[in-house]
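Look over this today:
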Amino acid sequence: MNISQFDYHLPKQLIAQRLVSPRDRCRLLVMQTKKKNEHRRFSDIISYLHKGDVLVINDTKVFPARIHAKKETGGKVEVFLLKDLGNGKWQILLKHYRTAMNTPLIFPRGLQAHIIGRSDAVWTIRFNKKGKALRTVLEKIGETPTPPYITASAAAKEYQTVYAKKRGSVAAPTAGFHFTRPLMASLKKQGILFVPVTLHVGLGTFAPVKETDITLHKMHKEEAELSVGASRILNRAKKDGRRVIAVGTTATRLLESFSDARGTLRPGEKAVDLFAYPGYRFSTVDGMITNLHLPKSTLLMLVAAFIAHKDKTRGVPKKLLATYREAIKKKYRFYSFGDAMLIL
């Protein structure tokens, strides 16, 4: 399956720089099997949900993962924290960096680190602090890592869902941005259930696909957790024939990763690396809320897989890029701070 099948041209002016305020006033593109696309506001989503539907939300919280350092020579280095390995060690990405192993990196507030390993683009460093002392310094010197295509400086304050709870992500589960507390309260009154799960977004979600044949791409692992309570609610919903609707691609990948061959969800904690592209058959997810994604990204490929699954078609669904062209023509706002899409 060639990566060019997931490419499209997007005018730069349609890349959203800020969230709509209030968040639930963004636009909503509704795609339903064997129906024409509809164009609404996100707050209208209640019209498409039924009593007993379960919305699965990813309650991960973005931490300030971008920090700035200097080499002993005075050269500037940008460090992007990926994963805490414990005992003062972290996996990181580096920008503006060329040097040998063990060269020190100097941070504000007396923090230092040395490079101790590398695997492809991912480096491993060891700080001179650990535990609570390290976390305290990182919280003070770190910055919220908004995507590079977002240039608005105030956007960092918006880069979190209203239900974010468990710290651990380097990027936000952006499909959840569109929910406000009043909207969630209204949906709950209508009998819609919200079930939190946790997938800490890391390199696996945003790493680019470099292979021409996408089936050769390997996803990086991301830590995830499905509680006993959540699995019971979701398994009961499936047994009762009620719909499970994933809020975002991260919630989708978690649900499918914790599902067995019969579609039963098993609780626990594990690292997930599911890469879904057309041909994948979904066992748990009945609907999806998502954003409009980057060309050639794994997120766009997962959405393509879900549309093909819903429509019972093979290969890359023509419906996907046709819908994206329609969204561009109607000037939808794209990417992290952009508009939403509901697929049922």
Observations:
- The chain has two domains: 3-62+152-343, 66-141.
- The longest helix spans residues 298-311.
